[in-house]
Amino acid sequence: MGRFNIVERKVARFLQEPPTVRGATAVIVTATFVVVVLSGVLMTFIDNTEFSDIGVGLWWAVQTVTTVGYGDVAPKNASGRIVGTIVMLEGTAFIAIVTAVITSSFVTRAQVEHDAAQRKDQLSDRELMEKRFDELERKIDALAS
């Protein structure tokens, strides 16, 4: 019972807080891990002639989710192929999301650096204008005296 409350609180907090890169990465990695383990175990029950034990099922799931697919084991019946399709789609989503996270972090870093450079340039322009105004004031004071 207490374990369910912990999961419920974590899910509620996840849904309330704005998503972060770290949070999104954790979700996709966890989902991929769960899909690999469940599909590897499931394949030993669905197609036990090809997948003789859980180790073979997990090996196949890892090959499939990583899009390597050596072909040493493959599902023979329709239900196994449906599971394989789900694992392939999860692997493709995993690669796409990891690529997007990496790209996003590069873009964010470049934007921060660009904004800092612009602020520095704006400050430099302001300082230049202040120096010119100070010089003009000195000249006006010199003419007035």
Question: What can you tell me about this protein's structure?
Answer:
The chain is mainly alpha-helical and 145 residues long. It has one domain: Helix Hairpins (Orthogonal Bundle), CATH 1.10.287.70. It has four helices and no strands. The chain has helices at residues 2-16, 21-46, 54-65, 78-144. The protein is elongated and about 105 Å long.
Secondary-structure blueprint:
Elements (H helix, E strand, L loop, with lengths): L1 H15 L4 H26 L7 H12 L12 H67 L1
Helix pairs in contact: 2-3, 2-4
Short recap of the structure:
The mean pLDDT is 84.
Low-confidence stretches: none
Given the structure, what is the number of helices? 4
Please give the domain count.
1
Task: State the helical fraction.
Answer: over 70%
CATH domain topology: Helix Hairpins
End-to-end separation in angstroms reads 88 Å
Q: What overall form do the CA principal axes indicate?
A: elongated
Radius of gyration: 29 Å
Biggest sheet layout: none
Q: What's the pLDDT, averaged over the residues?
A: 84
